[in-house]
Amino acid sequence: MELCRVPAYHRPFLSTHLTLYHELVAVCSQRHPWTTQQWQPLHQYLLFPPPLGEPSKARREALKRKNEIPPIDLSNLCPIAKYYAAADRVFDQFKAHLEAKEYDDAYIIGRRFALFSTVSLPKHDYYKSPSAVLVRLRIKNQKDAEWVTRGLERIVQFMDKQELEKRHQEEERIRQQKEDEQKQQMAWEKKIRDRLVAVDSSRLGELDSKDSALDMNSKLAKLNALFPKDGMHEEIETDHDEVDATHHNIQPLPPPIAPPPLNEMNDQDIALFQSTSAIQQLKSNGATPMFADPPSYSDLFLDTLRISPPTDVSDASLSSSVSIPHKPPSAPRTSVRILRSQYSNQLESLQSSKRVEVIRLGTYQGRLSGSPRYDSTNGCTVISPLVVATHVYPQRQNMNLLTPHKSTHSKLGITNTAINEIIDKRSPPILQTVRSKLGLNQHALIVPSDVHDYLVDENILPQDKFVGVCGGNILNEDHWKEFVDMLANGRAGKDPRKQKVGAALFFREHVISIIKIPLGNGACYFDIVDSLPSAKAGGMASRTRCKDQISFETMLQWYAYSKFGDTHCDFIDANEWNDGMCDFDPRVFQGFVWAE
User: Fold this and answer.
1) pTM for this one?
2) pLDDT exceeds 80 at position 164
């Protein structure tokens, strides 16, 4: 690096940094006599350190792909104090993982807490409530979020350090492995060369002895021919003839074959001929060296490593990292989309047979939003209990009517006119009063308990009319059956066939009214009053009349499934119901029941 290319105001610091760097290299070089190639990574890291998070980026991205979930949508009908309590539990989990140095788990839990505290919670209508209790909870959560954010930065630093150490260990392992392979290969080749030399020497000795024997025999034959002995000449001739006859019966030996030229030899022949890289050539052809010892288990293991593709240590560590535990899936269930289609078909059949009838009302919530005095936007938490109160306690409600001369009740329960007046006239003043008392914005949804407290205090919905509350998973027959039974039977000790009962059903950010209308002959109707505009009611609020309990149960299930979008369907198909996480589950419902 040249100082002349650095701005002047950076040169003093950079000069000092380079001096310290060269001193460090000099000291380390004395202790660890590495080569320049081995020192290069350290040179690069000291001069140009990677930015924060870069070494562990792949690891963190893999963790997020495997465990990251989008910010959770909260229900404004659920008290925000419950969500603060859930955030505290997640915060405790983060600290526990951090103390245990379980950085992967801590990273995921910390990100979930941060997203929940900074994205999900502020969307709740009660987040900016001036209530002293909620203000303390909000301030604590904000401080916890700041602490977690700093903790996440430290976790990234720890992850970077771990990844650099893993990278260095892997490089050292590969370097040591290569050295071991080279040493083993050199030793093996030396052994082969020694054996080939020994074999060549033994063959040359045998050829020399044979040549000397042939020379001696030829010399003796010449001497005998030049100087034949008396009395033995005929015998020698006879023996010679016998030998010639014998030789005629034996085929002559083939002439010696010269070694082929190098350009006609294969790889194995060249390796043996030159005695270089013999082991490697034989092994590449799948053959075993002729004079080599059987390979040991360590050799086989090294061979396996040589032919195996190089592995990424970071990927291997990620695959073995501890992820957030998930409950194992149970037996296959019917898809929510299929069930939604089935209940839709059943409802069409009931409407065709007139067992279910949709009645169009004259208004809907928020229709008069241009006038603050009559604005009922997001007022279902007030409209629904007012409809129930007017049904089960009409005497008291007649006193609260803006037009008292009109009757609110008929033989079929609360009149449609009374429902229209509740939506447009009676609910807006109550909404304004409760929201102002709680410090909420103009169109905030109000938690049911706050509305009930106000209605009880104002004696609009007396406490002695209250039957009970139940809730849980609206797709679980045991849960919604309890609600239906409470609605059908009413107050204990009274004849259910003659008793008027009403309920407010809280589900999926909305509240509807359900009223039971006894007909006097043992039968009863179940009317569902929904203040939201409906296409089936011509864009107005609706009153759906179910003329028997079986039709009502089918209608209730259709209503539940119709509120699930594709995201909810995917979530429900993939997750079992968990009581501990019910406040975050789209299936959760709650029903409040009153009776006369």
Assistant:
1) 0.63
2) yes
